[in-house]
Specification:
Elements (H helix, E strand, L loop, with lengths): L55 H11 L6 E5 L8 E7 L2 E6 L2 H13 L25 E4 L4 E4 L4 H6 L4 H14 L3 E3 L4 H11 L4 H7 L6 H5 L12 H20 L3 E5 L4 E2 L3 H4 L5 E2 L3 E2 L2 E2 L2 E3 L6 H16 L4 E3 L14 H15 L4 E6 L6 H6 L5 E5 L11 H4 L5 E5 L13 H13 L5 E6 L8 H9 L9 H13 L4 H12 L41 H13 L1 H4 L3 H31 L3 H22 L7 H10 L4 H14 L6 H8 L10 H23 L8 H10 L14 H14 L11 E4 L7 E4 L7 E2 L14 E3 L2 E3 L2 E5 L2 E6 L4 E10 L12 E7 L2 E9 L5 E6 L5 E7 L15 E11 L1
Helix pairs in contact: 1-2, 2-4, 4-8, 5-8, 5-10, 10-11, 16-17, 17-18, 18-20, 18-27, 20-21, 20-27, 21-25, 21-27, 22-23, 23-26
């Protein structure tokens, strides 16, 4: 059942460690465990365990998780307090007694207990010791959920986490979600069999229905009404296999009293549906990121109730009954056309309630969804919204009014496309969740963890899940200290120092306005000297201080003597070393830009070799963990096939979703590398090959003096996705992660560029001098020497013109940009003419910037706001200045909202220094 809203919220009450029966022995480098106690203070495994009626599934989960150690636990029923789920851990009969409101909450209680003895159940790697003693708690460990909905899942999760996961993989994840305290899970697997049954009842042959349904890797976007049929239709064998798997997943969730949130019916049909069904009216939905959308059967048309009834009947037959169904009308640009949307909302709801009285309609809060008129028309008693933007925008709020009082979950999407990057807005969650929950008139009644791809960032899901079981914000550093003890089972100061560094960087994301995920790496980006991101809609610059982040790797390596044998340590060491190596791409690329711009072939060659070497190191690092093997991703897909021809189609499905995503039109629309990830095999073959091709083209340009030849990157990607060559892909991990992590430290240290020599005596145009430092948003293109910036490519700028005067020398940039020069105290003056290039003297363009000159961090010149058509002369005394910086600020305060960096083609014309 969908869990009811408590009469009043009960806050978590978790007994502090000092009050537990077990006093934890926290000694540097030693195991976290019980202090010396008589043997009878440990749970007796030879005493038969007790299991209350209805808690057999909790017993089975404990057996799966703990093996024989599960015999040390009794499971008992605990009544809800004011409707809130809760657990209480005590001791009885020389057993650890877990009393809870339902089986899933009981497993959350087991995990809470395990945390007090230095063990934990989490994503990726569990820290469990079946042979460890189970000390009996002297005081109760209790917690109550402060919300009724604890939702996990994203509409895209099945595609990006693994559409070809086995039952064993799903079983493992369900146990982990229960242990983390979730009680609702989005479950789309097998829904294609439901649609197949419906279509064959409404005028479509089995062959036509199969052709319309995409292969599993792309099905999530078909269920969202974004696309169909790509990359190929499904098969009878896949329909049956996925329906069987979906039923097992849904049944297991029900056994644990977790709600499987199933797809509901809101009108998705083939575009020609009205031609085959009298009384149907289909609203064309246009395109979605290079794909043609399916049609939207107007819920107000007479045939809609019949189709919806057939859908829910088939869904019950295939997947069983649920108390919650997810549906999102007008997702990401869907068209209203002539549909009466409020009436359609009521028709969708009527169909659901007719099939499943009192079932909950779950909607996603995303972009403009749900539209205000949809929310106003929905019944708040049977509707729930999982907000995907709660942590993304500082100004987000007022959702009670916007959504007409519908209860909703505070949600997060900490990765898009299943990116492997570390990071999440943990510090924001820690404060904002409780602010929203406690606000007067709050409609918050849930949390929603919705990474587009799961099984990553285990610290993030652990902290986020805990929001629902804590009574308010925590000291984040103290939480991470406790996390390391649960994660590794030792109290080691180096491990704690490592996670504090991560807490202050990747899990705070201080430089990440308007994003909820951290930056991705550029080794996985389509090659370009102006690349700023691999995925089109990811952050374009560092989301945190990478030097501070790299300190975490130093601390983790220092902890190797105490922790190297722990699977959790080896996974985390891989992940941090992977991220440090990935971060080198954002330091090296500006150096490659500069070397090319200065036509310094030797420097470019050395840097490109370093770049490719880091790609190889990255591939070796991720090869040490089974979760990071592209070979397994491919093998899982091929294993789901009924024959070799289908295996090739499924391999294409699996390859394309993490590379090209779709055909050329989708690639051109921005989906290319949307789901980039740093996996062994993908990094070492596809990503490395692309950069090798690119560097070869640049080397040729040095020979010819012409711009590098354009490469058809879609064709390169299409060649990779169509291949079945897996010779570069591992299916079993290999390598010494400690040794490789030490090489990652060396790789990071090596990215520090050499400081250029100060200029010699005389007059020097800055466009002829090497840059000491560069900070820019490379998405706008590279800094151009002696032209305005132009577009994104090198050398595409026009001659510099300011207020009608053309200049032969200067620097062309776009805001925000900072360029540093090493003067070494040798120069006396700086002069330039600054302004917005005349190329922006056109209707509709409203550039607005501020030029600043800094010497050794001291402000020497400030132009004030400058708009198009203006030019200003600059003359600055540089006596004694070691470092000169030229800054172009986008002047957000003086620019149209959301357009601070638009049109800001700024020039430093005739910029020159006089040196002695």
């Amino acid at each position: 059942m969908m869990h009811p809203t408590p009469n009043r919220r009960r806050r978590a009450v978790i007994a502090p460690l000092a009050a537990l029966a077990t006093t934890l022995l926290l000694v540097t480098g030693t195991a976290v465990g019980a202090s010396a106690e008589p043997p009878d203070r440990n749970a007796k495994l030879n005493v038969p365990p007790k299991t209350a009626n209805g808690f057999e599934s909790a017993r089975a989960a404990a057996d799966r998780l703990l093996g024989d150690a599960a015999d040390g636990f009794d499971f008992a029923k605990l009544d809800a307090a004011d409707g809130a789920d809760r657990y209480e851990i005590t001791s009885k009969r020389n057993h650890v007694r877990v009393a809870a409101t339902d089986p899933a909450t009981a497993i959350a209680g087991v995990n809470a207990y395990l945390g007090t003895i230095g063990q934990s159940i989490s994503w990726n790697v569990r820290n469990l010791d079946e042979d460890a003693a189970l000390p009996l708690p002297r005081s109760p460990i209790t917690a109550s959920s402060n919300v009724s909905h604890r939702f996990y899942g994203n509409d895209t999760e099945d595609g990006y986490t693994g559409a070809y996961r086995s039952w064993e993989q799903w079983e493992r994840e369900i146990d982990e979600l229960a242990a983390l305290g979730f009680n609702e899970v989005f479950m789309p697997v097998g829904s294609e069999a439901v649609y197949f049954e419906v279509l064959t009842q409404f005028g479509y042959s089995a062959e036509e229905a199969r052709a319309w349904i995409p292969l599993p890797g792309h099905q999530p976007w078909w269920l969202l009404q974004n696309m169909s049929s790509y990359p190929a239709g499904t098969s009878d064998a896949l329909l049956a296999e996925r329906a069987e798997l979906g039923r097992k997943i849904a049944d297991r969730l029900r056994e644990l009293d977790m709600t499987p949130v199933l797809p509901g019916y809101f009108g998705t049909v083939p575009t020609d549906f009205a031609e085959r069904n009298a009384g149907a009216r289909v609203e064309p939905q246009g395109g979605w990121v290079g794909f043609q959308r399916p049609g939207w059967l107007d819920p107000n048309s007479t045939v809609f109730p019949e189709v919806a009834d057939a859908f829910y009947t088939a869904s019950e037959q295939k997947l069983g009954v649920s108390a919650a169904y997810k549906m999102d009308v007008l997702h990401e640009g869907g068209r209203r056309g002539t549909v009466d949307v409020p009436a359609a909302t009521r028709a969708i709801e009527t169909a659901l309630q007719t099939a499943h009285p009192d079932a909950t309609w779950v909607l996603l809060g995303w972009q403009n969804n749900p539209p205000a008129d949809v929310a106003a028309a929905a019944n708040p008693e049977t509707t729930f919204i999982v907000d995907g933007l709660s942590d993304r925008y500082d100004g987000r709020g007022g959702l009670e009014e916007q959504w007409s009082g519908i209860p909703y979950a505070f949600g997060t999407i900490w990765n898009f496309g299943g990116h492997t990057t570390m990071g999440a807005e943990l510090s924001t969650w820690n404060e904002r969740y409780y602010d929203w929950l406690d606000a007067e008139g709050s409609a918050v009644d849930g949390i929603a963890a919705m990474p587009e791809g799961g099984l990553n960032n285990p610290a993030a899901i652990d902290f986020f899940a805990g929001l629902a079981w804590r009574d308010g914000p925590v000291d984040v550093n103290a939480w991470f200290d406790e996390w390391t003890e649960r994660r590794y089972g030792v109290d080691d100061p180096e491990l704690k120092a490592a996670w504090r560094a991560l807490a202050e960087t990747a899990y705070t994301l201080p430089s990440n306005d308007s994003y909820s995920e951290a930056h991705d790496g550029l080794y996985g980006a389509r090659p370009s000297l102006s690349a700023s991101r691999a995925a089109s809609w990811s952050p374009g610059s560092f989301s945190y201080d990478p030097d501070r982040f790299a300190e975490a790797l130093d601390h983790l390596l220092a902890a190797a003597p105490a922790a190297a044998e722990m699977p959790s340590y080896r996974y985390d060491l891989m992940d941090v070393a992977r991220q440090v190596t990935s971060n080198t791409s954002r330091v090296l690329l500006p150096q490659l830009q500069q070397a090319y711009g200065m036509r310094d072939r030797a420097a470019f060659t050395q840097l490109s070799e370093e770049w490719l070497g880091n790609i190889e190191l990255l591939d070796d690092l991720v090869a040490t963990q089974p979760q990071m093997l592209f070979g397994r991703w491919i093998a899982d897909a091929r294993a789901a096939a009924a024959d070799s021809a289908e295996a090739d189609r499924l391999e294409f499905d699996a390859r394309s979703i993490v590379t090209t995503w779709g055909d050329r039109s989708a690639v051109n629309a921005g989906l290319n590398d949307y789901a980039n990830r740093e996996w062994q095999g993908l990094v070492g073959t596809y990503y490395k090959d692309r950069w090798e091709r690119f560097f070869a083209s640049v080397q040729t340009s040095f020979d010819t003096g012409k711009a590098p030849a354009a490469i058809d990157w879609y064709a390169v990607g299409a060649e990779f996705t169509a291949s079945t060559d897996t010779s570069g892909f591992l299916t079993e991990p290999e390598g010494d992660v400690v040794e490789l992590a030490a090489l990652a430290v060396e790789a990071w240290d090596a990215t520090v560029p050499d400081v250029p020599e100060p200029p010699a005596a005389g007059e020097h145009f800055l466009s002829d001098l090497p840059f000491a430092t560069v900070s820019l948003n490379a998405a706008y293109g590279p800094i151009e020497r002696d032209t305005e910036i132009g577009e994104a490519a090198y050398g595409d700028g026009k001659p510099i013109r300011l207020a009608g005067v053309q200049y032969a020398k200067g620097l062309g940039v776009n805001s925000p940009t900072t360029i540093g020069f090493n003067l070494g105290g040798r120069c006396s003056t700086f002069e330039a003419v600054v302004g917005i290039d005349d190329v922006m003297n056109k209707a509709g363009a409203s550039p607005n910037v501020i030029f600043r000159v800094l010497g050794d961090d001291e402000l020497l010149y400030d132009s004030g706001a400058m708009t198009k058509g203006l030019a200003a002369e600059v003359a600055v005394d540089l006596t004694g200045v070691q470092t000169l910086e030229l800054v172009v600020d986008p002047n957000a305060a003086g620019s149209p909202a959301g357009q601070a960096e638009w049109w800001d083609r700024a020039d430093w014309a005739d910029a020159a220094v006089s040196c002695e």
